[in-house]
Amino acid sequence: MEKLQQKIIEEGVALSDTVLKVDKFLNHQIDPQLMHEIGKEFVKRFENKKITKIVTLESSGIAPAVMAGLILDVPVVFARKKKSLTLKDGLITSTVYSYTKQETNEISVAEKFLSKDDHVLIIDDFLANGQAALALIDIVEKTNAEVTGIGIVIEKAFQDGGDILRNKGYQIESLARIKSLGNKSIEFVSEKEY
Ligand code: G4P
Ligand code: NA
Ligand code: NA
Question: Which own/partner pairs from 68-74 qualify as long-range (CB within 8 Å, at least 24 positions apart)?
């Protein structure tokens, strides 16, 4: 997605060979116009698919997910990282292993918000090692709903997540795919390498 790549080039910062900082438009400050474009692009990439619900993970997945949900006119559910006070029973949970923090965390969704009849588009801001996406898939499949596909704003193609998910047969649509990061340079996977 050209606009997103431009934004990453203009406002993204390669903090290291593996970490891209995008807090000016995605992870802290949010650019609503860009999020709207992102939502439209997700809808376009899955336009032949049935989608009844969008599932994402708090916090940075919510903005792009809501934009797609607005256009599709379907509810957006975000998995929580912390247990809510008002919501203790009836949770579907899964675990996310963080390589960077070397810890396992639980994420959860209330079971009342997913049913076996749902066709779910999973959306997240980053795809790195794929652990968050795998946990979201696990939650959706525990309810016997169908995972229609996975929409990612920024995929770090040099990490394993993309291959893991594609090898499982899911349709993954990443709007920007980073080939490499480093020394203040950000390289994208070109469209023909897809
Ligand atoms: P990992 O081992 O797969 O790298 O996952 P980890 O749990 O360490 O990731 C921590 C957070 O960092 C996640 O967001 C993930 O989406 C995000 N992330 C992974 N790689 C990058 C990157 O290169 N740049 C940025 N900006 N984020 C990255 P989170 O903790 O769930 O945060 P949020 O959704 O509340 O913003
Ligand atoms: Na994040
Ligand atoms: Na995230």
Answer: 68/38, 68/39, 68/42, 68/43, 68/121, 68/123, 68/151, 69/39, 70/39, 71/39, 71/40, 71/43, 72/43, 72/121
